[in-house]
Amino acid sequence: MSHAEKSSSVTAVELPILDQPVSHDAAADEGWIHSFETSAGLDGPGLRLVFFLSGCMMRCLYCHNPDTWKPQQGRRMSVDELAQEARRYAPLLRQGGVTFTGGEPLMQVSFLRSALRRMKEEGFHTALDTAGFLGDRVEDAMLEDIDLVLLDIKHWDPEHYLHLTGKELEPTLRFARRLAEKQRPVWLRYVLVPGLTDQSEQIEGLASFAASLGNIERVDVLPFHQMGKTKWKELGLKYELDALRAPTAAETVQAVNTFARFGLHAV
Ligand code: SF4
Question: What is the residue extent of each domain of the chain?
Answer without folding.
Answer: 3-188
